[in-house]
Amino acid sequence: IEWVRVTLHGQSFMQYQIRKMIGAAVMVMSGLAPPAYIDEYVFSARRAHVPTAPGVGLLLDRCFFEIFHKKHQDRDPITFDKIT
Fold this sequence. Notes:
Layout: H1 17-29, H2 36-42, H3 66-71
């Protein structure tokens, strides 16, 4: 597989969490772990070693702050309109 497009939605992420989720998906797609590995270890309280995918090649395309804006209506909204 040369490249894969992944879309993630979440309210907040821990450091390296997305890279670990991608690393787990690569393990499964490469046959190094069974598909059940994702549910059993990645999205559960059970602990397991999950490799961290390298940051090279990962691209953050957009951020959305709807929940933040609803909670903090007294602040100016965070936008990236001027950058793009």
